[in-house]
């Protein structure tokens, strides 16, 4: 081994070297995002909230840090002796010259392998058409019978029943209790779905399970469950685990709810919405009947007006008026004709009167006759001392001729 | 429109609501005699009351798939 020259170019400080190494690590893609598998030891939860531990296998150990921000979010209950897979970036803690893994995610060991299986089975089932959107059925809006496939011991069932009690109590719930995790779970779940369809013909089936680890939910990634969901006559709503959990049953179901509670919500209408639409319908009923009545009333008024105009009473009144009119005309014309006739009669009487010889007497003329009644119209018919009779307008008297004159020249001439 | 002879007390929500819908549509759509309109209205009110009653008073019925009787465990919880 060569002696190190004491006159080398120059020395780095420890800080400089460590800094150099840190930069080297940070520029390496593999070291910046890596999954590491190992068993936890020396776990320390610091009061600051950060978690420090070491993961190791038979050959090596790696210091790890989980910052508080992540520590509060991870669901995995990590503890000493637990085999985990941790993801993160390798960095250097300079004050101690230690490299360590700054953890960004953890999962229990085996989950990685399960996830690979999951992806493989998902691709396989997808290729066979089990997740086809075209196969998905509509969820009936008002289910009368709801099948529920879940464990009777879990919170999921109580969540579902409480939600249904609040929202929609008109449905009948048929519960098919099954294990929801463990070796028997997939066949029990598949069998329950099948029996529900065969015996009960529910309108919809809820397949539910509360939250858990990937292994806990594994039954819902089983091919038998996926096929039972796909082949179910009734549409299936899945509500498995939490919002972030997706199982293969979710992909095969007709509707995927993020939680059991959400599945119950999606399966049923809200009673208060139903009440509202019932009220709308009732108002329409009321209004329509009022409209019809108003319309009928209007037509009735119109008709009764027309009826009154055609009633016998109206006729009688109308006839009576006409009669009065005729009577008036009649009496007018009768009067006229009487007047006319009277006028004619008086005229004729007048004319007759003027021709009556006695009428002349009234004007002072007299008719003179001899004793025998012969009219004396000439002086030659009488002699002096003859007795004559003089008739005037209101009677007659006797007279004696006292003298007689020959007709005058004038009178003779006129003749 | 012909009025169903089924007594409203025997109808479920769906049936009653659907008949109520039909009645309202019939009243709105066609010329009905007054007598018929009043009969439809009375039937409609009865149906609406039935629906409201069902919504308010119904109790969730729960039973197990493999038993015909109500699950006593679940009944106690409710």
Could you list some keywords that capture this structure?
heterodimer; A: 415 residues; alpha/beta; OB fold (Dihydrolipoamide Acetyltransferase, E2P); Rossmann fold; 4 domains; 13 helices; 13 strands; B: 78 residues; Helix Hairpins; 3 helices; 60% helix; 5% strand
Any overview of this molecule?
- The complex is a heterodimer of chains A (415) and B (78).
- With 415 residues, chain A is an alpha/beta fold.
- Helices cover 44% and strands 21% of the residues of chain A.
- Chain A folds into 4 domains: 14-111, Beta Barrel (OB fold (Dihydrolipoamide Acetyltransferase, E2P)), CATH 2.40.50; 133-270, Rossmann fold; 278-316; 358-414, no CATH class.
- In chain A, strands 1-2-3-5-4 form a 5-stranded mixed barrel.
- In chain A, a hairpin with a 4-residue loop joins β2 and β3.
- The radius of gyration of chain A is 69 Å and the shape is rod-shaped.
- The N and C termini of chain A lie far apart (217 Å).
- With 78 residues, chain B is mainly alpha-helical.
- Chain B has one domain (8-77): Helix Hairpins (Orthogonal Bundle).
- In chain B, 60% of the residues lie in helices and 5% in strands.
- In chain B, α1 (13-29) runs antiparallel to α2.
- The longest helix of chain B has 24 residues, at 34-57.
- The model of chain B has no long low-confidence stretch (mean pLDDT 80).
- Chain A binds chain B through residues 142, 144, 147, 152, 158, 161, 164-165, 169-177, 192, 195-196, 199-200, 271, 274-275, 278, 281-282, 284-286, 288-289, 292-293, 296, and chain B through 12-14, 17, 20-21, 23-24, 27-28, 32, 34, 37-38, 40-41, 44-45, 48, 51-52, 54-55, 58-66, 71, 73-74, 77-78.
- β7 of chain A pairs parallel with β1 of chain B, so a sheet runs across the interface.
């Amino acid at each position: 081994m060569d002696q190190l020259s004491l006159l080398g170019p120059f020395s780095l400080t420890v800080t400089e070297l460590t800094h150099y190494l840190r930069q080297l690590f940070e520029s390496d893609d593999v070291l910046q995002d890596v999954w590491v598998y190992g068993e936890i030891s020396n776990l320390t939860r610091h009061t600051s909230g950060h978690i420090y531990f070491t993961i190791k296998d038979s050959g090596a150990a790696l210091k790890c840090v989980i910052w508080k921000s992540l520590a509060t979010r991870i669901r995995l209950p990590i503890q000493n002796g637990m085999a985990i897979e941790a993801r993160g970036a390798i960095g250097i803690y300079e004050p101690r010259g230690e490299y360590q893994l700054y953890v960004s995610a953890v999962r229990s060991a085996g989950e990685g392998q399960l996830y690979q299986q999951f992806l493989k089975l998902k691709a396989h089932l997808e290729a066979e058409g089990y997740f086809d959107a075209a196969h998905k059925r509509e969820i009936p809006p008002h289910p009368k019978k709801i099948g529920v496939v879940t464990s009777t011991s879990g919170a999921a069932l109580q969540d579902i029943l409480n939600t249904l009690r609040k929202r929609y109590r008109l449905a009948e719930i048929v519960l098919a209790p099954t294990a929801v995790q463990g070796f028997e779970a997939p066949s029990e779940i598949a069998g329950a779905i099948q029996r529900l369809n065969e015996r009960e013909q529910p309108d919809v089936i809820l397949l539910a399970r509360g939250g858990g680890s990937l292994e806990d939910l594994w039954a819902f990634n089983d091919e038998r469950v996926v096929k039972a969901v796909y082949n179910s006559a009734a549409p299936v709503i899945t509500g498995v685990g939490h919002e972030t959990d997706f199982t293969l049953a979710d992909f095969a179901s007709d509707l995927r709810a993020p939680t059991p509670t959400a599945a119950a919500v999606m399966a049923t209408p809200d009673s208060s919405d139903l009440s509202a639409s019932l009220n709308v319908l009732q108002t329409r009923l009321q209004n329509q009947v009022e409209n019809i009545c108003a319309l009928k009333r209007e037509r009735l008024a119109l008709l009764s007006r027309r009826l009154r105009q055609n009633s016998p009473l109206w006729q009688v009144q109308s006839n009576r008026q006409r009669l009065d009119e005729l009577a008036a005309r009649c009496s007018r014309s009768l009067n006229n004709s009487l007047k006319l006739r009277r006028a004619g009669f008086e005229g004729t009487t007048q004319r007759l009167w003027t021709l009556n010889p006695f009428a002349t007497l009234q004007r002072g003329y007299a008719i003179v006759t001899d004793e025998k009644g012969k009219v004396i119209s000439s002086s030659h018919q009488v002699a002096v001392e003859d007795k004559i009779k003089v008739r005037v307008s209101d009677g007659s008297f006797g007279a004696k001729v006292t003298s007689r004159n020959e007709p005058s020249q004038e009178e003779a001439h006129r003749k | 429109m012909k009025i169903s002879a089924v007594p409203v007390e025997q109808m479920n929500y769906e049936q009653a609501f659907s008949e109520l819908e039909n009645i309202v549509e019939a009243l709105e759509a066609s010329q009905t005699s007054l007598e018929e309109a009043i009969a439809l209205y009375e039937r409609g009110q009865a149906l609406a009351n039935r629906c409201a009653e069902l919504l308010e008073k119904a109790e969730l019925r729960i039973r197990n798939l493999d038993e015909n009787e109500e699950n006593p465990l679940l009944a106690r919880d409710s």
